[in-house]
């Protein structure tokens, strides 16, 4: 399997902290030297290992934001 290259362009924030020290984070990441995308996934404390996640484009992030703004989360 080829090595996956990534660069964390912007650390936006921690969504949640796990009991095992791994955090679920929202970051802007460039995968394999491509255009950066928004990325939600778990990361080890040193960012050397990662869990499964989801990447979304700016357009998808805007659509998600609009959907979340319509939810009553109280």
**Helix segment count?**
1
Helix content: 10-25%
Report the major sheet.
Answer: 4 strands, antiparallel
**Which range does the strand content fall in?**
over 45%
In short:
This protein has 74 residues and is of the alpha+beta class. It is 18% helix and 47% strand. The chain is flat and about 40 Å long.
Description of the structure:
It is a single chain. By secondary structure, the protein is an alpha+beta fold. It has one domain (6-70): Transcriptional Co-activator pc4, Chain A. It is 18% helix and 47% strand. It has one helix at residues 58-70; strands spanning 6-17, 23-31, 37-43, 50-56. The radius of gyration is 14 Å and the shape is flat. The chain starts with 5 loop residues before the first strand and ends with a helix. The mean pLDDT is 95.
